């Protein structure tokens, strides 16, 4: 917001004065953040039943001017300013050239995951606070997520392991299949509220963690194991039918899905998951054969034939091999739309031999990041309130991947508690929103605002366009990406994760030059109209 003041929890009588001072200081895009200082250079924005910071709908500046939204470590949160385009550059240094006529991938969008843990934490708040949290993510006064991932039955972010058919062993006809209370009492009611709040079309993605115990080799609903038998047999046919029943039951609640994945982390969870972690192991060959003989034909012959099938749903280190095995097989490829990727091992291998190689091999199949979070490393804090660096990690990853042909990015849990749970295997992590149910308040972390610099301004259907840089050696520390929205509006996101301010310019041959300075430890989104 406009001020970088370090204010600790203004009380009820101070809040009107705080808001007045914020309005006097400068322009804003909605109601300001009420900050809470939680450590050295660490700050969260506090929301409760009576107040939460907001964003106005994006309003386009007049032709020949630009709008800038800035968030920074020193306390700005979507601070709005405007400036005039220059007819020619007035200074040397780092410069970007925006070219809307060179198109790359079409953007699907951005979002988070509606886990049991997220739903539990949201529902622990008062109804008014719940509403403010949901609006923060999905409404026009929030960051307008359009992607939402849901586990099919339990994930590790549940209070216990379960599937949708645990009561009847060897139930190959799925006569005992039923949604869990976590669906009917928590996730589905919240989904209906989210749908009512969102003006953008929501695309839901479903991923299974585990199958019923009687379908698994260890005869348990949790722990390392795989489906019994092989593709084409009654175990795999039943598992394919399980997907359809899930889609059927949600459709009865007026909830439809854009896509499904055959399995969450079919490779990684086998090697690092705890003893009781819910997972099904698949090799790429096994997933290929399951798609060819079971899941693909079952979907195609059902009322859910328009549901997209996303393979892999695991770390990019497995690419492009997984894509070659599955998409490289025409019998499987006919059922597949894209490749799902998680970020946890991104530091092991760069995007060029993985993401870009996969795109070049199979440009007609989208790449979508389906899960990411901070706090997953064993040596780091699970919840690190107010960490600006964790927001930086999100933006660095998103920009790198968007520039490597990725079409969208889905965060993990929408909301967690102050420990980073609940999670029945104690696999705690961080979240952009942390809920303190005892105080009936929630905290928007820097990660939330970093995500909003993409989700709010780059709607579905936008196209990444060429944004080339010219600079002297040693001053190219900024990360950036350019987009053209469906309404013809130009968008550029710029991240400065360094310690020094950096002056730069953006040229658009149609309208002129933006000259600005990216503050140290800041992210900014630039928006301007073009004359076509």
The number of helices is 12
Report the CATH topology name of the largest domain: TIM Barrel
Low-confidence runs (pLDDT<50, min 5 residues)?
A: 1-26
E-strand count: 22
Cross-sheet strand order for the largest sheet: 4-3-22-19-18-17-5-20-21
Helical percentage: 25-40%
Biggest beta sheet summary: 9 strands, mixed
Structural class: alpha/beta
Q: Count up the domains.
A: 2
CATH class of the largest domain: Alpha Beta
Shape, please?
globular
Rg is 23 Å
Query: For this structure, what is the CATH homologous superfamily of the largest domain?
Result: Glycosidases
Distance between the termini: 33 Å
Share of β-strand residues: 25-35%
Average predicted local confidence, pLDDT: 93
CATH architectural type of the largest domain? Alpha-Beta Barrel
Question: What do you see in this structure?
Answer:
The strands form three sheets. The chain has a nine-stranded mixed beta sheet, with helices on one face. An eight-stranded parallel β-barrel has the order 6-7-8-9-10-11-12-13, surrounded by four helices. The chain has a five-stranded mixed beta sheet with strand order 1-2-16-15-14. 25% of the residues lie in helices and 26% in strands. The protein has twelve helices and 22 strands. With 532 residues, it is of the alpha/beta class. The longest helix is centred in the middle third of the chain and has 19 residues, at 234-252. The chain is globular. The chain folds into two domains: 15-105 and 462-528, Golgi alpha-mannosidase II (Immunoglobulin-like, Sandwich); 108-455, Glycosidases (TIM Barrel). It starts with 14 loop residues before the first helix and ends with a strand. Helix 10 (352-361) links the parallel strand 11 (338-342) and strand 12. It has helices at 15-25, 116-123, 127-138, 181-197, 234-252, 268-272, 284-300, 321-326, 330-333, 352-361, 388-402, 446-455; strands spanning 35-39, 42-48, 65-72, 79-84, 94-106, 109-113, 147-152, 203-208, 259-260, 308-315, 338-342, 366-371, 406-413, 416-417, 433-436, 441-444, 463-470, 479-484, 490-496, 502-508, 512-518, 522-528. This is Glucosylceramidase. Pathway: Steroid metabolism; cholesterol metabolism. Its EC number is 3.2.1.45. It is found in: Lysosome membrane. Keywords: Glycosidase, Hydrolase, Lipid metabolism, Signal, Sphingolipid metabolism.
